[in-house]
Amino acid sequence: MTPHWVHGFTDIGCALLFILLSVPLVYRKIPMNRWYGFRLRKSFQSDECWFSINEYGGRQLILWSLPLIVTGAIKIFLPMDGLEDSVAAILGAGPLVVCMGIAIVRTLIFAKKLQVVSGRIERSCGKSA
């Protein structure tokens, strides 16, 4: 069984990596490309769509990395000795999967609600862009 502190440092390390990778997206520094960012069909419709979706997605990844840091810190000090391997695995990987899953799903919902007319964003989640 993996020591409990390994799960904690893994969560914290992954959260910090997601934050570092998200900052350029939030500040709209990453142009449209095939390798880095939220590469959805709608994000490739225009530069405006690309930057809007990636800024929102970057903010979501940063936001949902914060609970991951907290759970990682808790796991460093929370012994998992005596737990069944399946329970320890869920507690070990669960927060990472849940937090990043929420960030991705929220970004997909944002992109779906984005209204694009002639390559321009007309309405974004109920607000004018």
Give the helix/strand layout.
Layout: H1 4-26, H2 47-77, H3 85-113, E1 115-117, E2 120-124, E3 127-128
Antiparallel strand pairs: 1-2, 2-3
* Distance, first to last CA: 51 Å
Instruction: Name the helix and strand elements from N-terminus to C-terminus, one letter apiece.
Output: HHHEEE
The helix content, as a percent range, equals: 55-70%
Outline the biggest β-sheet: 3 strands, antiparallel
Query: Which segments are poorly predicted (pLDDT under 50) over 5 or more consecutive residues?
Result: 125-129
Question: How would you characterize the overall build of this protein?
Answer:
The structure is a single chain. With 129 residues, the chain is mainly α. The chain has one domain. The protein is 64% helix and 8% strand. It contains 3 helices and 3 strands. The chain has helices at 4-26, 47-77, 85-113; strands at 115-117, 120-124, 127-128. A hairpin with a 2-residue loop joins β1 and β2 (120-124). It starts with a helix and ends with a strand.
Question: What are the defining features of this structure?
Answer:
129 residues; mainly alpha; three-stranded antiparallel beta sheet; 3 helices; elongated
Concise summary:
The protein is mostly helical and 129 residues long. Helix content is 64%, strand content 8%. The chain has helices at residues 4-26, 47-77, 85-113; strands at residues 115-117, 120-124, 127-128.
